[in-house]
Amino acid sequence: MIEEQITVGLVVERRRLSGAWGGVAWRPVTIFPAAPEVAPWTPLGGNADATRFYAGEFPISLYSTDTANYRDNLASGTPKLWVVMRAEGDAPPIHVALVTADPAEGEGATEAGNNIVETVDMPVEIAGVVAAFIAGHHVERPIIKRKRDNRPHDVRWRDGSTGEEPS
Q1: How many angstroms separate the first and last alpha carbons of the chain?
Q2: Engineering a disulfide at 125: which of 33, 80, 81, 121 sits with its beta carbon 3.0 to 4.6 angstroms away?
Q3: For the residues of 91-135, what is the DSSP string, one character each?
Q4: Are 69 and 110 contacting, i.e. CB atoms less than 8 angstroms apart?
Q5: Domain ranges of the chain
Q6: pLDDT one-digit tens code per residue, 107-130
């Protein structure tokens, strides 16, 4: 398996929630194709309701086995990057666990239940790198359907019986 990494910069937003429950919500806002030379968690401005922060630089890993997923993402017309975050403590208040171009990996991160998984538009520069990676490493893999056989299987249950009717 071939792996390549792209390093990107991430901007997130902390938004104050209105309503009876209050609190704050975090969401990714944008990705910089090249990480700027700014300290992580530098405030970028905002107002009383929302503040943006440069969260830092993060890798996007591309794997040769996932090129079909990347291709489908680019073919969607508006390619996305999935950002997976988790609420943690006070400094920094969230942990960025993953930035990925693979829709299946992004969707898989939603199963944990306590992850914040959001998409941001993929910058054109990153889409170009992903497209070049696909062109260089994609191998079409045929879908092979398994055929069911009708033979009885040698099944043994805990009590030692085979599950077949006695003759």
Answers
A1: 52
A2: 33
A3: SSSEEEEEEES-HHHHHHGGGGSSEEEEEEEPPHHHHHHHHHHHH
A4: no
A5: 3-137
A6: 999 887 788 999 999 999 999 999
Determine the Cα–Cα distance for residues 40 and 37; give it in Å rounded to an integer. 9
DSSP state of 71: H
Q: Count Cβ atoms below 10 Å from residue 75 Cβ, excluding itself.
A: 8
**Which distant-in-sequence residues (6+ apart) come within 8 Å of 3 by Cβ?**
61, 62, 63, 64
Per-residue pLDDT tens for 34-65?
989 999 999 998 888 899 999 999 999 999 99
Strand partners, 84: 98, 117
The residue type of 6 is: I
pTM over 0.85: no
